[in-house]
Amino acid sequence: MSASTRVEIKPGAYKSDLKPVWCPGCGDFGVLNALYRAMANLQIEPWNTVILSGIGCSSRLPGYVHTYGFNGVHGRALTLATGVKMARPELTVIAVGGDGDGLAIGGNHLIHACRRNLDVTYILMDNEIYGLTKGQVAPTTPTGDKTKSTYWGNPEPAVDPCELAISTGATWVGRGFSGDMKGLTELITGAIDHSGFSFLNCMSPCVTWRGDDEFKRLKAMQKPLPEDHDPSRRANAIAYTREKDVLTTGVLYKVEAPTMVDRVEAIKQQAMGGKPAPSTKEILSTFYPKF
Amino acid sequence: MPTRDLTIAMVGSGGDGIITMGDMLAQAGAAVGLHVMKVEAYGPQIRGGESSCTVRISADPIFAQGDQVQVLVVFNWADFAQFRSEIVTALDAVVLYEATDETPRESIDLGSIESVRWVPVPFIELAKTSAGTTLAKNIVTLGILGELFNLPKEPVERAIRGKFTKKKAEVLEANLKGYVAGIEYAKTIEEHASGKRLQYTPGEPMLLMSGNELSAVAALHAGCRFFAGYPITPSSEVLHFLSQWMPKVGGYLVQTEDELAAIGAVIGGSFAGVKSMTATSGPGLALMTEMLGLAAMAEVPAVIIDVQRGGPSTGLPTKSEQSDLWQALWGSHGDAPRVVLAPADVEDCFHATVAAFNIAEEAQMPVIVLSDQFIAQRRETLSMLTLDHEVVGRQVPSAGDLREYKRYKDTRSGISPMSWPGMKGGEYQTNGLEHGEDGTPSSMHILHEKMNAKRYRKLRLVRDKYSFYRRYGTERADVGIICWGSSKGPVKEAVMRANGRGEKVSAFVPQLLYPFPYHEFTEYLKTVDNVIVMELSYSAQFYKYLRTFLDLPEARTFVFKRSGGRNLTVGEVEDKIRKVLDMSALRGEVLV
Questions:
Q1: Whole-angstrom Cα distance, residue B353 to residue B371?
Q2: B208-386, what's its fold?
Q3: Is the confidence at residue B534, as pLDDT, over 70?
Q4: I want to staple B263 with a disulfide (CB 3.0 to 4.6 A). Which of A107, B29, B291, B586 is the partner?
Q5: Pairing status of strand A92-98 against strand A49-53
């Protein structure tokens, strides 16, 4: 389609017919709406887009967006996304999921997706709790919090997802809040637009298992990054993400670096050397005695 | 009298050049069109330690590793002791051993070596005086073996030149001197080789490949352009080969962080419309099991090569066993249809792997190629002519289908046209959750029943369209052997020998294991009086699997099963055939 005949895609066009299963007041609604807007901002073609997820409340999201979607198994969204992006680099690939999915059962995959700098956007909807399984402690739950599986209070410290992503090689790391539609839309737009692995930790409160005040609490904590923050400086980014008792939002870290696809594409060019792919017979012939 | 079939085993320490020697012998045989099978074995050390290499060279087609070696080269008896239960010498075998070995053979338990021709050879001394270095010991030995047993000497010399051509001229010169010294020395001991000189007519060169290498080539032939894998013995050669060749054909490869990621990436790549594969061994397949269920539920084609090794757990990583069968067939939560294919030899690795892609694409489900260490890592000669196989693609939606696209449309065959990203109008959401025809999640019992039926119905098409099995021996038989996978080689050889003696024996080897080839089995059973089921699984997984589908003739069915760790031998198979033949003869008398 040429640019002149292109019809503008409105945010509503990305909405699927499915009604979300989320509880009233769930933060994930905000993330979903911001995603529709970000996709419209970038005029992303639904048929050239794949959204993949694992298991959890937030992992239901692909069903609510009119694109190709894959609601996989617990913790493995990024493994599926790796396959899609490597097999079809021209596609827009977005992975989504919750903090349990991405940081507990799927934590290892996050590290390696960051390290590879695969050109995938990963939106982690962080509610500091397991929602779908009804209220157990998550790797992001603050120490001391009582949950269904920490009757006496959580004995473990929480992980900082942004610090983890920055330190393992993600080239775009941001933090957002689902109660901040404008800011979140900008962040998701920037994350998808970034070439390389973009990691967006989005605070998305669970009003069912962490209480009705969760929205208010987070809103009061939200503090956008100062305008003069230089996101290319790793030390700055880590200092901001470590700040206690505030929810720093914005693009913490952003650098340009070759992506996984750039690197394997270069290998492919080198291996093929401008020649057509060898036939099966030619490949087999290399197994004749070599003298 | 000359021979047409010779098995040579070589044993030494790492650094003795055992593997290089075996490789050169095998390549020289392949170069002149001889049939060759080469098997290597190592101690647990990464470097150094004992190693052995067995090369069988024959003027006629061969199907098994030689049970018994006619020629044994021992650089070190202490190393040989590590393999004594695995290397069995034939009666009257020629044993060439280091004359100055510091551990004399009399001082250690050598197991069953007896009635052989003991020939002490000063390998070290010969290497030192001719080539100026003990490192040339293996090259000296090649000269001795070539001259004594009439092996293709000229190709060996070319192999030596090829190997040392990149080194300094003096190194090549020294090795060639060592080779000639070996040949000259052999002339002084030639009386020991009587009856063991190979007789053959040179022919066209043959390919020399392992099952893993052939599986990898087959994947490329089938159009696989994405591979994700995690290193694991004994499957890693597939990853190695494809790391070199996948980019050459314009595809991509990733070594993932674990097997969970490997199967996930394969499902992702395939969902995106690119034929995708992974290769692993038992422990890796265990990790992939959850996502096999996902591929079955989401109906995504996926090819998984499982190269079996001894288990459970870490087990015997470098040895073969047939004990991943149940895991491959049934390893699942929920009812998760998949197809299981089992190549029975190196050449089969090509056909089974291409067929696996065809079936995966056609039936949109995971297909496991159940290989094993014995066929995956041994090298054998093959003819290029046999290595071709038709390639089938995925059924994609028509323009009409896309107008109101239902990804999981309930069809007669169970197969629904599958779109992939990029197809406008083909957008759908897939799911590990149970889902309706359009992909919408649902927990309704009635829908679950209907969709289970749809997914399982696809197996019928596979069963009816793909008939892979091998049958050997007489049309009607007193004894029929049922086996699978690499057991085929020794079974086939034993059956042919039995037929040569006039015994009525046959064998049936299914290569499509699941869906169960019921028709082929029942037809076969009609042709045999007694059945022996043979397998390398302590708990008799194959026999029990057969029992779930078949009524094997009661009182006329025998099971020979044992643990892996040592490949099935022709001798074992012949022994069981004889026992059952004797028993049935006895029964005949009683009845009369």
A1: 10
A2: Rossmann fold (3.40.50)
A3: yes
A4: B291
A5: parallel
Across the interface, do B221 and A69 touch by the CB < 8 Å criterion?
no
Q: By CB neighbour count within 10 A (0-12 exposed, 13-18 middle, 19+ buried), where does B195 fall?
A: exposed
Asked if A63 is an interface residue toward chain B (Cβ–Cβ < 8 A), one would say: yes
- Does A76 contact chain B (CB < 8 Å)? yes
Instruction: Give B-chain residues touching A68 at CB under 8 angstroms.
Output: 271, 420-421, 426-429
**Does the interface ipTM go beyond 0.95?**
yes
pTM: 0.96
Neighbours of B292 (CB within 10 A): 24
Q: Where are the domains of chain A?
A: 9-285
Handedness of CA B45, B48, B51, B57 (dihedral sign): positive
Cβ B252–A268 below 8 Å, yes or no? yes
B158 touching chain A per CB within 8 A: yes
The third-level CATH classification (topology) of the domain covering B469-591 is Rossmann fold (3.40.50)
Give the bridge partners for B71, in sequence order. Answer: B8, B94
Task: Name the fold adopted by A9-285.
Answer: Rossmann fold (3.40.50)
CA distances from B351 to A7, B222, B337 (A): 49, 10, 22
In this model, does residue B66 exceed pLDDT 90?
no
CA B395 to centroid of chain Cα atoms: 31
Cβ–Cβ gap A270/B250 under 8 Å: no
Amino acid at B499: N
In the predicted structure, residue B398 carries a pLDDT above the cut 50: yes
Pairwise CB contact (< 8 Å): B426 & A47: yes
Dihedral sign from CA coordinates of A180, A117, A107, A95: positive
For a pLDDT cut of 90, what percent of chain A falls above it? 96
DSSP per-residue codes, B470-492: EEEE-SSEEEEEE--GGGHHHHH
Mean pLDDT of A24-41: 98
Is A29 touching B (CB cutoff 8 A)?
no
- B208-386 matches B5-205 in CATH topology: no
Identify the bridge partners of residue B510 per DSSP, sorted by sequence position. B469
Any idea where the domains of chain B sit in the sequence? 5-205, 208-386, 399-465, 469-591
How far from A99 is each of A124, B193, B227, B448, CA to CA, in Å? Answer: 6, 73, 29, 30
Interface check for A210 against chain B (CB to CB < 8 A): the answer is: no
CA pair distance A14, A10, nearest whole angstrom: 8
Tell me what pLDDT residue B590 has.
55
CATH code for the structural domain at B5-205: 3.40.920.10
